[in-house]
Design goal:
102 residues; 28% helix
């Protein structure tokens, strides 16, 4: 089980256009899909940072809109099956250089 800490949206509309969305996908190593991605930055049971991705962007938008209480989403349990892709780390860590500085 993972616990959500932050969320984001990677769609053409959220990133300022199709070109920006396509560039984000390329930088993230993800295919550009119609509708984009809903993203939850989470921590797993061991405290490791993981990113959960879903192509069901409206599901995540609904969760965000429904959480009127500040901080409520930060401790939300991420339901299994909705976020079908998972990557180690958070997006800002994906492009970090390795230990040899590459």
């Amino acid at each position: 089980m993972s616990t959500a800490r932050e969320f984001a949206f990677a769609t053409a509309a959220d990133l300022g256009g199709r070109d920006q969305y396509t560039a984000w996908c390329a930088a993230a190593g993800l295919p550009a899909v119609d509708g984009g991605y809903g993203i939850i930055m989470a921590t797993d049971a061991f405290g490791r940072r993981v990113t959960k991705l879903t192509t069901d962007v409206e599901y995540l938008r609904g969760l965000v809109a429904g959480s009127k209480v500040p901080g409520l989403l930060a401790n939300m349990e991420v339901p299994p099956g909705v976020f079908t892709q998972e990557r180690d780390g958070w997006p800002d860590e994906w492009a970090a250089p390795d230990r040899e500085g590459r």
